[in-house]
Amino acid sequence: MRIELPQLPYAASALEPWISARTVNTHHGRHHRAYVDKVKALVGDNAETLEAVILRTAGDAARQVLFNNAAQAWNHAFYWQCLRPKSGPPPPAYEKWAAALKEAALGHFGSGWAWLVRHGTQLKVITTANADTPMVHGLEPLLVIDVWEHAYYLDYQERRAAYVTGVVDNLLNWELAECLTT
Ligand code: MN
Question: Cα of 27 to ligand 1 centre, how many Å?
Answer without folding.
Answer: 6
